[in-house]
Amino acid sequence: MTIVENPTGVKRAVLIGINYVGQQGQLSGCHNDVRNIQDFLQRVHGFQQHNMTVLMDDGRHKEPTYAKIMAAFDWIVKESMAGDTVWIHYSGHGGRVADQDGDEDDGYDETLIPVDFQRKGQIRDDDLLKHLVKPMRKGVVVTALMDCCHSGTVLDLPY
């Protein structure tokens, strides 16, 4: 796998793995996905642990709640400058809900489903566009790997 990166910039990552432990629809491989991606980024591409935010519902990491996922995205946008490399990884459930603002051709917003979705709701593609895509500074190289259902347009990119 080739990652386009600037060798002089800072490398940052947000890695999210949600197995929904104890919930209906529990998954089993999302924590392994995060550990494998983290190892790959560190060993092969020189990412440093202190520049990675890892969210997993494994009892050892910060919980991947709606608020913590959005805070991680806000952090990586705030810290990243032109010339930096950013990796976003999400492994968990994805979904779709009725579009509320009329910007979707198919009438649905694609979503990421945080561990606390039953209380806080799903993270809509509109939220990702507003908090992650649009505010990212020009010149930051971003790779986003979304391992979930309905992920094809979850960043609401115009192309």
Q: Your description of this structure?
A:
- This protein has 159 residues and is α/β, with parallel strands linked by helices.
- It has one domain: Rossmann fold (3-Layer(aba) Sandwich), CATH 3.40.50.12660.
- It is built from four helices and seven strands.
- The strands form two sheets. Strands 2-1-3-7 form a four-stranded parallel β-sheet, sandwiched between helices.
| SS element count, helices | 4
**Poorly predicted regions:** none
Helix content: 25-40%
> CATH topology, which one?
Rossmann fold
Q: What is the overall pLDDT average?
A: 90
- Which secondary-structure class do the elements indicate? alpha/beta
Q: Tell me the strand percentage band.
A: 15-25%
- Output the strand order for the largest sheet: 2-1-3-7
Succession of helices and strands:
EHEHEEEHEHE
